[in-house]
Prior knowledge:
Chain B: This is Serine/threonine-protein phosphatase 2A 56 kDa regulatory subunit. Helices cover about 75% and strands about 0% of the residues of chain A. Chain A is mainly α. The radius of gyration of chain B is 31 Å and the shape is elongated. The interface of A and B includes residues 15, 48, 50, 74 and 152 of A.
Amino acid sequence: MAGAAGPGTGAGAAGGDGDDSLYPIAVLIDELRNEDVQLRLNSIKKLSTIALALGVERTRTELLPFLTDTIYDEDEVLLALAEQLGNFTGLVGGPDFAHCLLPPLESLATVEETVVRDKAVESLRQISQEHTSVALEAHFVPLVKRLASGDWFTSRTSACGLFSVCYPRASNAIKAEIRQHFRSLCSDDTPMVRRAAAAKLGEFAKVLELDSVKSEIVPLFTNLASDEQDSVRLLAVEACVSIAQLLSQEDLEALVMPILRQAAEDKSWRVRYMVADKFSELQKAVGPKITQDDLIPAFQNLLKDCEAEVRAAAAHKVKELCENLPIEGRETIIMDQILPFIKELVSDTNQHVKSALASVIMGLSTILGKENTIEHLLPLFLAQLKDECPEVRLNIISNLDCVNEVIGIRQLSQSLLPAIVELAEDAKWRVRLAIIEYMPLLAGQLGVEFFDEKLNSLCMAWLVDHVYAIREAATNNLMKLVQKFGIEWAQNTIVPKVLVMANDPNYLHRMTTLFCINVLSEACGQEITTKQMLPIVLKMAGDQVANVRFNVAKSLQKIGPILDTDALQEEVKPVLQKLGQDEDMDVKYFAQEAMSVVVQRLRKLDLPVKDCDEPSAPGADKNHFLRPRGPGEDAGKGPAYQLCVNPRETLAHPEIVGLVHFSQSRD
Amino acid sequence: MFDFLDCVADLKGKEVKRAALNELVECVGSTRGVLIEPVYPDIIRMISVNIFRTLPPSENPEFDPEEDEPNLEPSWPHLQLVYEFFLRFLESPDFQPSVAKRYVDQKFVLMLLELFDSEDPREREYLKTILHRVYGKFLGLRAYIRKQCSHIFLRFIYEFEHFNGVAELLEILGSIINGFALPLKTEHKQFLVRVLIPLHSVKSLSVFHAQLAYCVVQFLEKDATLTEHVIRGLLKYWPKTCTQKEVMFLGEMEEILDVIEPSQFVKIQEPLFKQVARCVSSPHFQVAERALYFWNNEYILSLIEDNCHTVLPAVFGTLYQVSKEHWNQTIVSLIYNVLKTFMEMNGKLFDELTASYKLEKQQEQQKAQERQELWQGLEELRLRRLQGTQGAKEAPLQRLTPQVATSGGQS
Lengths: 667, 411
């Protein structure tokens, strides 16, 4: 936009002449002033259109002053305005005029609401890059100074985010002033301002000359890191990462490390938590030597901290910490200085700590190699697989692939099985769902024999789970298994069991058969589909529950592409025709829809189509998903069963699909 | 310090400490002449060591003070005695603030204030009474306490919507505001406008709304000229989606109107009653009902009557429309009563408004259409300009030709 400003301006001005009478500024401003907030908001969001209509000059001389004067609006409107102005440089005439945007943004940077202020600062930062160096010193820097010495905390917090964008391009004299302003904000009376300054300290340090970092930033950092408010101190820890990257090892040791050590032992758990949370970044910033001397002992303390939050944050970092250690001597350090603490955490009293550890601990096996894994880690994995908290077990199982690479899964399989079985039958459906998702992975790693022997029955049991989401996941799981183990396996183990369910007294289970066929047919291929599945589907067309019948229609549509012409012509079409005459209008609808697909396919295969009904379904498409059930109608087993599931489950996965469907004639 | 998380550890030690603390409480409460100068530093040290601690992370990160049971402080058996002792110490007739102020300093107060975040309501109750006494006895700390309170509130509003002791702090402030000398200092007015009013925007308003409304009304009773600021502030923060909060706002507004001076009422009547009208049209019947109750308030009714030429036009359209459309019968009949009052108040104006109502509706529609046309025109213009600039970029020499062509095609 900025680059094209020259010719663009010309075009805009030329075309604008004729339109000026059409869009007098008063009309546009009326829109921006409308009493209805929503309309005001709409207008503001199209501010660029308005500016375009006015042309660059009138935008500068009329629109912007208006915006600057009427800045007392709803926060939502102000937020939109702050955002718009960040991209306005082209609309006011390019970089030479970018400073025209500063007055409204300056006001926006002082409002109370944080999101508006932050957006204004973001836009100011954006615009600062579009300023020429001269304009930056003439307009932008004075704005930053004004904000930095504003009398309410809002303008001073906003100023904190602007120093680093104007510092690198300022002259030396101005630079000194900017540093001075930043210094005073770091010791501001208001904690909000000190927090903002602490949050930007690292960013500011990066644009400073090294001398100034040492002489000015470090003392500021030291002060902030020992602030009376823990909310300030913890932000200093963040800054520490950036500052540490800038200093030499000696300076680091002398100037920063004492502070960091102190932070790792801060009396407030929030500060210690921050150290744990930023541990990998800190580790990279200070280098291997200081890590070894200082950070590892600090990390050990964090792993046994008295607050569970801190321990959990540290546990999360175990793998990253170990990975980032220099390869030489890594194994010894981990074995001697980290592992003993990890062993403790496996039996921690807090489940979040254990589950944080479980989510990363498997990653250690690749670092430590086969022997150490078997000797030292395996007992820990096994212990966690027996943990009382399902999340811990799940986290272990979900990371099995790491171990598989190193020692093979056989070592674990004996302990895995009970853990999997227990998770498979967990009372919380989300846990069951999670374990299903890992089944294909497990199957791949455990091999077909083990699977058939131990896990197959679980997979089949999920098909009749009372939560729809589980049945659905179980269906998809079968498909993935077939992809892994092949057609023959499917034909021998899965298909017969699925087909038996077609005779189940519960209509939900009968429908599951159909859902399974939908996903399995493709994986199994034409022969199995035609010979084994199709007859069952066709037979179910006579089911007494309408839901089953219209799912038959859907299934036929789905498996149609896999069948050959004969089957379509001789078997599918008659059944669909019959369903097309069904007394239930939804069955009719889906049957007709399926029919149209089948007919199309037959046409493609270039066969004459005989006596086909008009395949469209006029009028049948409304309300075809749900129909209110009449009072006193017995829904059979399904819905009564559903009432037992807890409301959260039903909320997350409403079993609408499972509601029995009755034909209206029965009322 | 004893570990109360482990409830069987060192039972004997705990009992000894409890007995000793009990004795101290008894002693300072009933015996005269024990509070001599040399014991002050020890007393304050004993209190600091025992009560000042970093509060543990909340076990329930989405702790909802209205729904969830708070986590009670496990070491309360000791803590309570320490607080009790502190309180009696402060209230003792022998207590000398001039001596104590050397030890009860700004840092002490800051740490005391941080404890207000405790989840345990028993602890906050003690803290409230204690801070109140400290404010009363240490004149030098008053400004500092007020400043720190406002920092806590500002952080609560703008940075971190979690602080358990807001209601307690507001309760103390209520009594502090009550004692402000007139005329009010700028600092106090600023506190009202920039801290108390924005506090209304916080999600958990219901937990401390009663105390907050009390503070606001206290201010207005002190200085009526603040009314306009306050009401405009409330209108700015008026809840958009939370009906529960809307009802609270309406309640507070009525409290304010109860004490409003007629001269102030005139200044805000129009925006205020437009908001009230919006509330009446709320599909949530409790909001509509609460708003309509304003007309049951005799004082408000008299204000409306005195200014009916402004108030009536501001609400008439909405009332008229809602009386025909609202789903709830109670609301409809309440609105009829209000319209009847208006009719009796000023029949002529009422008739005029009824007559102009339809006309306005039509005008509104027309305006909406005009607006749509305006924006459509603008959008076309924008596209034309975009094409223009693109043309300019791609082929600067032929710039004019495509432009003429497009605008010719459009018109």
